[in-house]
Write a structure and sequence with these properties.
mainly alpha, two-stranded antiparallel ribbon, 2 strands
Length: 59
Amino acid sequence: MKKQILNIGNTLSKGELKEIQGGRGCPQVDPQECSTCGGFPTPNGCCLGDAAVWFCLGN
C-alpha cells in the first residue's frame, strides 16, 4: 500500500518546479500592498494575481 501511495502522480520537470516555487514572474512585494491591489500574498513573499493586480503593483 505504501508503494502505491508514493507512486501517485508524475514527476515534475525542473521548469515546473521552478514555476511552483516562484521562480518565474513572481513579484516580491509587501503583503499589505499585494492585498490592496487584489492579489493573494503567499508565505514566500510572492503576490499571486491576474494582469490587473500586476498593473496595480507597477509590474
